[in-house]
Structure formats: structure tokens, C-alpha cells
Amino acid sequence: MMTMWIIILWSVIAFWAASMLYLGFRVPQLFNFAALADLSTAKRTLYGLLATFGLVGIITLCLDFINAIVCITYLAMIWALSDFMFWLAEKFLHVTFAHDYAGWTALVVCVISLVIGWYSDHHVWQTNYDLTTDKNVKNLKVAMFADSHLGTTFDDKGFAQHLKTIEAQKPDLVVIVGDYVDDGTGKKQMVNATRALGKLKTKYGIYFVSGNHDKGYYGAAHRGFSEEDLFHELKKNGINILRDESVLVDDDFYIIGRKDYSVQKEQGGHRKSMEELTAGLDKSKYMIVLDHQPVEFDKDAKAEVDLVLCGHTHGGQLFPFNQVGKLIKANDLIYGHEKRNKTNFVVTSGISDWAIKFKTGTKSEFVIINVRKEK
User: Fold this and answer.
1) pLDDT tens digits for 223-247?
2) Model-level pTM?
3) What is the 3-state secondary structure (H, E, C) of the chain?
4) What pLDDT digit, counting tens, does each position of 301-320 carry?
5) Full set of structural domains in the chain with CATH
């Protein structure tokens, strides 16, 4: 796993370096200044690189460096594609363009794409799934969200507004599938948001499992609270925390909450297997599993649990990189619904975001799942 992420990291660095060089070469061609035309290709490219670094600096000041990398990489990809399309037109349609229409087209398309990506990230949609089961369970409406990363695209007040939208759907229960907070979440923000969460009215309550960001990567001092402090606030406000344990709700269905996969892979700890978690449970009852990262689906299906709910992937976040994630099988499922044997899997793109402020391959959402007994 670590080797894969190292390869991805260096691939991103190499891709960004190539993007900078490409833009350094192409930016001067966008403007037909006589002074530029008299310079050598190397000097024009140098000026282009300086202009590109200037753009990186402006975006970094407005957002941050990570999002500057995203914007520049997107511009380079779209520009290269635009160049290719206009080259095809010149070659096969035998037309000659007097101006750099390819470059201007790339700029317009990139701006439009990123504006849509910003909106898709900061606006929250409702996504519905209707599932059936042959088990004798009452009709059940489950509201699910993950990856709120409090403080990224909304603060505690914005979070409270989203909770009102969820509550208006009248769910029987609400489940939070990890990464509720982040390293950038302040303690006051966490406390206020959790207080609002505790006021949310449901029939069967609210259930929580941790994600890899909930523990904090930089220690409690960085954000002002530890994971245990978070748990304390959640419990104080009536939220049920499940850590490799199950609970029977209304003698009708089970909720099984798993420790996050990072406990095992990043911290060298242990989390129970699905066989251990389901041992001794009444298999005739409907079983819902909360697991932040969409992994070990085959083991879940083998245990014949009924529904597994996950987050973590952010729906692939950016196109076309979400497609790369599918190809290298970074997770068992990047987004959406899938059924393996008798087990349904739902992976959400998250109600918010982590560091990147754009979603061009997906959108922010909370999920409503209606479970009904087959007629």
C-alpha cells in the first residue's frame, strides 16, 4: 500500500513538472508580441515559465498551493487536448488559424470546468438509493454522510444547515461514516457542530465510525483536541460510537461499526474481521456495516452482511484521475452502488472535502437509502 502511494506521489510531481514546462512553452505563443517573436525559443519559454509561476503564486494566495497545482495541471491537460484537436482540424480539414484559438479555447474551457468543479464541491446534493431485502425487516430510511472534514467547505453553522436538510427527509437513523473532522478543524468548531448534530431528531438515533482523519495526523496540539476529546463530545450529545462492535436496534436490525482500515495499515494496530464481528449475531436480521474505507468487499460479501456503507474516496474527486483510481483498483469501489452476492455496497463522494476545493469527477452529497422487504 505504501509503495503504491509513493508511486502516485512521484507521478503527481512528474505530471505537474511536465505541466509547468508545457505551459512555459505555450503561454508566450498566446500573445503575438513582436518583442517575444524576436527572442529564442529558450528565452520565450523562460518568460512563459515566469508567467506560469506568477499564476501559481496568485492562486496560492487566493486558495493554497495544493489547489494551485490542481488548477495549473488542469490548464495544461486541457491546453494539450485543445492543441491536439486544432492540429487535427488543420491536418484533415486543411484550415489555417491566424490566431492561437487552441490556447484561448483551453483557457475558457479550463475556467468553466473549475468554476463548475468549485460549485460541485461547495454545493451539497441529495442522492437516493432504493434497496430491497428478503429478510423480515421494517421499512427503513437511512441518512448517511461522510467526509465532512469540518471547516473545509463549510463551518459549524453551515454544517448545522445541512443537518436541517437531512432532518427534513425524516430518516429513521443517521450514520456518519468517518472523517467527520480534520487537522484544520478547530475545537470550538467541532464542539458547536457536534452540539448541532445531537439536536438532530431521528427514530433510532445517530451512529458514528471513525475515518483516517478523525484521529488527526499532526497530534492533538495542532488542532486543540484529540480523537478521544472528539469521542467525548459525540457521546455527550447522544451520538453512538461503534468501534469494532455491533448493536441490535429495535430487535429488528443490526448496525456494525468497524475501526478504520488505517488502524491496521498505518498504525500497525488490529481491527476485527467481519467474521469476528458477525459471530453470534442472528443472521436472519438485517445487518448494516459502517466502514469508512471501501476495502475488503469480498470478505464482507462472504460474511453475507446486507449493506455496507463507506466514504473516504471523495467519489474519485477529479476527472480523469478518478478513472485512474478505478484502473489501479485503489479501492474496491470508488463511488455509487454495487451488489456482490447478497451484499449491497454504497460508497458516497462525501458531504464536503479535504484539501482540494474542486470536484470535477463527482459532487458533494448526503445519501438517503430506503430499505424495503421484497414483496
Assistant:
1) 999 999 999 999 999 999 999 999 9
2) 0.91
3) CHHHHHHHHHHHHHHHHHHHHHHHHHHHHHCCCHHHHCCCHHHHHHHHHHHHHHHHHHHHHHCCHHHHHHHHHHHHHHHHHHHHHHHHHHHHCCCCCCCCHHHHHHHHHHHHHHHHHHHHHHCEEEEEEEEEECCCCCCEEEEEECCCCCCCCCCHHHHHHHHHHHHCCCCCEEEEECCCCCCCCCHHHHHHHHHHHHCCCCCCCEEEECCCCCCCCCCHHHHCCCHHHHHHHHHHCCCEECCCEEEEECCCEEEEECCCHHHHHCCCCCCCCHHHHHCCCCCCCEEEEECCCCCCHHHHHHCCCCEEEECCCHHHCCCCHHHHHHHCCCCCCCCEEEEECCEEEEECCCCCCCCCCCCCCCCEEEEEEEEEECC
4) 999 999 999 999 999 998 88
5) 2-120 (no CATH), 124-373 (3.60.21.10)
